[in-house]
Amino acid sequence: MNALQQQDLAISPTAIEKLAELLGNMEDEVQGVRVYASPGGCSGMSFGMTFADRIDDHDLVGEHGSVKVIVDVDTIAHLRGAEIDFVDRGDGNTAFVFNNIPQPASGGGCGSGGCGSSGGGCG
Fold this sequence. Notes:
Helix content is 15%, strand content 37%. With 123 residues, the chain is α/β, with parallel strands linked by helices. The protein has a single domain (2-99), classed as Sandwich (Hypothetical Protein Aq_1857, Chain: A), CATH 2.60.300.12. It has a 5-stranded mixed beta sheet. Strands 2-7-8 form a 3-stranded mixed beta sheet.
């Protein structure tokens, strides 16, 4: 297990606060929040989060107070430089969002420089 660096994946204070709240309601077997990538989306990948019951040797782990954020080495290659935030859009519409998703070298996809929002299993 290696350390996840802030320059690899930033997590806003608001997102950390919400993740801590969600994890506080979970059972003891939850190790943290896993960020994952799957094929699809405007950058060629779609991103999400889920609760993790284990940490593998090839995972990178960032500790933010009581919150462990877990990312495998294949996923971080697609997320390096991105930020996870938690936003409240009003009227009860809240979500975790992925900002500043790096675009592939071949270009493509979104004019905003990232998918903007890829919610996951935590919200």
